[in-house]
From TrEMBL:
<dbReference type="InterPro" id="IPR000182">
    <property type="entry name" value="GNAT_dom"/>
</dbReference>
<comment type="similarity">
    <text>Belongs to the camello family.</text>
</comment>
<dbReference type="Pfam" id="PF00583">
    <property type="entry name" value="Acetyltransf_1"/>
</dbReference>
<keyword id="KW-1133">Transmembrane helix</keyword>
<feature type="region of interest" description="Disordered">
    <location>
        <begin position="34"/>
        <end position="53"/>
    </location>
</feature>
<comment type="function">
    <text>Probable acetyltransferase.</text>
</comment>
<dbReference type="GO" id="GO:0008080">
    <property type="term" value="F:N-acetyltransferase activity"/>
</dbReference>
<feature type="transmembrane region" description="Helical">
    <location>
        <begin position="105"/>
        <end position="127"/>
    </location>
</feature>
<keyword id="KW-0808">Transferase</keyword>
<dbReference type="GO" id="GO:0016020">
    <property type="term" value="C:membrane"/>
</dbReference>
<protein>
    <recommendedName>
        <fullName>Probable N-acetyltransferase 14</fullName>
    </recommendedName>
</protein>
<dbReference type="InterPro" id="IPR050769">
    <property type="entry name" value="NAT_camello-type"/>
</dbReference>
<feature type="region of interest" description="Disordered">
    <location>
        <begin position="1"/>
        <end position="29"/>
    </location>
</feature>
<keyword id="KW-0472">Membrane</keyword>
<feature type="domain" description="N-acetyltransferase">
    <location>
        <begin position="56"/>
        <end position="256"/>
    </location>
</feature>
<keyword id="KW-0012">Acyltransferase</keyword>
<keyword id="KW-0812">Transmembrane</keyword>
Amino acid sequence: GSVDVTSAGDPCLTLLPPPPHRLLSRDSSNPVEVHDASSLLGEGGGPGATMAPNHLSVREMREDEKPLVLEMLKAGVKDTENRVALHALTRPPALLLLAAASSGLRFVLASFALALLLPVFLAVAAVKLGLRARWGSLPPPGGLGGPWVAVRGSGDVCGVLALAPGANVGDGARVTRLSVSRWHRRRGVGRRLLAFAESRARAWAGSTGEPRARLVVPVAVAAWGVAGLLEACGYQAEGGWGCMGYTLVREFSKDL
């Protein structure tokens, strides 16, 4: 599922497929230990057992790790873009526009099939390119530091987290990227990154005089499982963004 997230940007919380290569990072200087988050995002059983807290740490991303992290983010968008595109293009207004475009092309193109398929192909491509442009990039560091990477004890980078302050005072902090490699799904990486995000948001609110500690997590509409997990952890849906009156990304928030 996703939080694909992804999108202070339009993040999505994603569970990503594995990158084509693995980068081993054995320099764990100044690691930040992640709090045990057994009460957060309880992920169900899967091919791997949940990693113990002392096997996973979170630290700021090093510059040499940026290509790998960008690759993870772009791969994560591919996990959800087809479902988001299907959701967007099967809404009644979108179907009406596609039908109108097909009818117009029939007077220009000799092929009925081409007139029917070309608008659909272009619309899907536009949705995918838009999602990749928004969610496949890495936002610059903000007042909350980072971007942060989750690192296994062996040195494997298995997840990424980026945070940013809200647009207005009192908005709290926002998760702008939260992605986990598919190799490490259902092993506790996502819930530990979320626990770290909450801890970081609380510390940031206390140091800047924010009126309240709050975390906002945007989730792609196709990631129903992630939305349910967030609600079970005390997050509440509070709107989102989309097009033609239909929501594509829902935002969940929690007072910390």
